[in-house]
Write a structure and sequence with these properties.
33% of the residues lie in helices and 9% in strands. By secondary structure, it is α/β, with parallel strands linked by helices. The protein has two domains: 338 residues, 3-Layer(aba) Sandwich (Rossmann fold), CATH 3.40.50; 125 residues, no CATH class. A hairpin with a 5-residue loop joins strand 15 and strand 16. Helix 4 packs across helix 18, helix 8 runs antiparallel to helix 16 and helix 12 packs antiparallel against helix 13. The N terminus is likely disordered.
Length: 537
């Protein structure tokens, strides 16, 4: 079956990206007047070390690459600090601007080249024909086993959760073979048994930044809630990769990190965590993307509604009419999804249909398909990669239905993602799953806030900053506005999660503001207009 939908949120993306010059890489806004009273205040920036995950490393567009690292917010901060006595700032740079990793010359799965926006298939005569992110072609030259010398001031390790910062062996090449290490850290760990926090404090920092915790929520979120909320379970060794970290464990480890970082009298800045459900990864694909003007979809609407009418009668009979499925002819229709929080009515649907005279085989298939089905609504979040799955044949479902005895033609008709086959849990964040994310974020931020106060550190309110970017946008000196709109807003990169260089510049200024307020400093600001909002190649 041909793809049936138009992703309304992407409509006009090419024209939007060309109509606002805030995405041009060389834009320059008015420079900030140069003060004559730059001062470090009570802070000492002579040895600055940044600790964190991908957001600290400069990860962007789905990869870590050299230009992105040079545009990391810690590197921007180090440039500012240099005006008031700050020293050199070394980073474990990737070998190229592709971003993929190899081990023994073979591409490491999950560590591919960065995204760029491709216009190859855009039809200039079709306003609904839009560019899409694609992986850059080419073979990366960053070989994980080529170990780097150190130390490095940027200790941001993409993928790290809070408990990984103190985990021995997280940078072991041997442990990487069994999935117990991080290839980014393997490249620059001081030894196979080293820890990230240990390598950081070994440099005797006088000032540090700590921004950690997003991955303790994010992996659950981007998997569509395909993980476990570990609240009340502090045994990280038992955690799966998509599990939400126990807030009690988070608080304990965070305090241990601060104890270690401040043991020599260092000062620093810590950042709180954003509401990940506000980033483009969760706000770009609409819950109702099925366009009744699409010539491939419109003719099928009557037949689809007729097919679902008997199931809707069953839903009403079972007392759950809100699960009814219907496609509109005059408005965009919502996706059909599987909601695992719903009672599974597969058996009831099957028996009710049989009571209505439907044969057992057909009734069983319908019960199997729609036992936890409903149409999405405005409270559901569809993850960004789903845009490539909606209205496509689900090959696994197709094979399963054939295994249940359906002819290929019938199995194909019932395997269309989001239309006849409910979008699976991995593609949708339901309200129940969002509640778990919100609760964990609030708990983590409460710990960060209280510990920042306890240790007398600058607290950087990134959550409020990015909420502003998502709602009103931030106006720059040249009058352009940076927003969270996917691909054209200027704040986020093409993976929909990590910031663009311009977004990182805005974050750097938020760090500077908090540092100035806490340590009575006066520091040079970063000009976001010197950094691109979208790499064009």
């Amino acid at each position: 079956m041909k793809k049936l939908l138009i992703l309304l949120a992407f409509s006009g993306i090419f024209f939007a990206s060309c109509s606002n010059d805030d995405n041009a890489p060389n834009d320059q806004g008015p420079s900030e007047p140069t003060p004559t009273n730059y001062t470090s205040g009570s802070a000492d920036f002579s040895t600055y070390v940044a600790v964190g995950n991908s957001l600290t490393a400069g990860y962007s567009d789905g990869a870590l690459f050299m230009d992105g690292q040079l545009a990391s917010f810690p590197n921007m901060l180090a440039t500012s600090f240099a005006e008031v006595g700050g020293g050199s700032f070394d980073q474990p740079l990737m070998a190229d601007n592709l971003g993929s990793l190899t081990l023994g010359g073979n591409l490491l799965p999950g560590f591919e080249n960065r995204y760029i926006l491709s216009f190859a298939n855009v039809d200039p005569n079709d306003p609904n024909s839009v560019p899409s992110p694609v992986r850059l072609e080419g073979t990366g030259t960053t070989e994980v086993s080529n170990l780097l010398g150190g130390p490095f001031n940027n200790m941001g390790v993409p993928g790290a959760k809070i408990y990984h910062l103190a985990a021995e062996g997280y940078g072991s090449l041997d442990a990487l073979a069994i999935g117990a290490a991080n290839p980014y850290y393997v490249r620059f760990a001081s030894s196979p048994s080293a820890t990230i926090i240990g390598d950081a404090v070994a440099q005797n920092p006088t000032f540090f930044s700590l921004w950690i915790g997003s991955n303790d929520i994010l992996s659950f979120a981007i998997s569509g809630g395909n993980g476990v909320d570990r609240t009340g379970d502090p045994n990280a060794a038992a955690y799966g990769s998509n599990d939400i970290t126990d807030p009690g464990l988070f608080h304990l480890v965070y305090e241990q990190l601060l104890q270690t970082l401040t043991a020599n009298g260092a000062t620093g800045a810590v950042a709180n965590l954003v509401d990940v459900t506000k980033v483009p990864y969760f706000t770009t694909v609409p819950y109702a993307p099925l366009d009744p003007t699409n010539p491939d979809f419109a003719p099928q609407i009557p037949a689809l509604n007729a097919t679902f009418s008997q199931l809707n009668q069953v839903f009403t009979f079972l007392g759950v009419p809100e699960r009814s499925i219907e496609f509109a002819t005059d408005a965009a229709s919502a996706l059909v999804i599987k909601d695992e929080s719903l009672e599974d009515l597969s058996a009831q649907i099957t028996s009710t249909l049989m009571a209505f005279g439907v044969d057992a085989g057909t009734a069983g298939v319908v019960g199997f398909l729609y036992g936890q089905a409903r149409q999405a609504n405005e409270n559901d979040l569809i993850v960004l990669p789903a845009r490539n799955e909606i209205a496509e044949i689900n090959e696994t479902a197709f094979a399963t239905l054939q295994g249940l005895g359906l002819p290929a033609a019938d199995a194909g008709q019932l395997s269309v993602n989001g239309i006849t086959y409910p979008m699976e849990d991995q593609w949708v964040l339901t309200p129940d799953e969002q509640m778990l994310i919100t609760a964990a974020t609030d708990n983590y931020n409460a710990s960060i806030n209280s510990l920042a106060q306890q240790y007398g550190l600058a607290l950087v309110d990134i959550k409020n900053l990015l909420n502003t970017v998502s709602t009103d946008g931030i106006t720059l000196n040249n009058g352009s506005t940076v927003t969270a709109q996917f691909a054209v807003g200027g704040a986020f990169s093409l993976d929909g999660i990590h910031l663009s260089p311009r977004g990182y510049a805005i974050v750097a200024n938020e760090f500077i503001k908090a540092i100035e307020e806490t340590y009575d400093a006066e520091l040079p600001k970063v000009d976001p207009l010197q950094y691109t909002g979208l790499y064009i190649n």
